[in-house]
Amino acid sequence: MGIRNLSIDQIRQRIELFDYSYVQDWNTWVIIRRNYPFDHTPPEFGRILRRWQACRPNTMRRCQADATHEAPYLEDLLNDALSVATALNGFDLPQGNLINGVVENALQELWAIFRNLSYSGRCRGGFAGVVGISKAVLLITEGRVGPAFDSMVRKRLGTGAIPTAGRWIENLKKVADDINQFQRANQCTLREAVPDVYSGLHYGRLYDMILGPGTPDLV
Asked: What is the pLDDT of residues 12-47, one digit of tens each?
């Protein structure tokens, strides 16, 4: 399971077959996140996460301007999360052994913040689970921390349920080890293995694209 037994050609094939609408979402997000004032960020954050079905079947929070529920709003969650995520600015996923101390605390805090992405529904007492949380963290770290642990990724990695921050962090370490195994076997970095147009992406985002929606089953 994972990517450790894939060839470079298989990695490239999977990246090239990744659902392009998700690439467009990602590119739009990065442009807005980097180049626009903060007030543009929460609406785009919400739009993408809703399109990615991050909180289904629970009801996801909206921006304050939508006035559909009480605080916290997406602006509040993002403000808190972006402050915490500064601790991850130098984080590099293949260095999974570095997920301790400051990094682990930041991940625990992000889990706690993004549990509140949803506020009502029949699952988890209305709170968001690993799907919504990991997708939100993937976005705000611009792909440093990934993949998004949706059902397809969890199936392909054989993770089982991920109900807690601790289990999420354990599986991020397994992803880091998987990337390292691939890199040792192929004598190149994952960034060097993917098509050039994607070589500037962070490892968590690349891994998400390799295992995510629209890609073929592992061989």
From this structure: 999 998 999 999 999 999 999 999 999 999 999 999
* Angle CA 179–202–108, to nearest 5: 80
Run of H or E including 113: helix 102-114
Kindly report the CA angle at 19 between 21 and 14, in degrees rounded to 5? 150
Is residue 218 a part of any domain in this protein? no
Cis peptide before 42 (omega within 30 of 0): no
Angstrom distance (rounded) from CA 204 to CA 67: 34
Q: How many folded domains does the chain comprise?
A: 1
Asked whether residue 217 carries a pLDDT value surpassing 80, the answer given is no
For residue 54, give both structure tokens. Answer: 């991050």
Q: Is residue 219 part of a domain?
A: no
**Alpha-carbon span 86 to 102, nearest angstrom:** 11
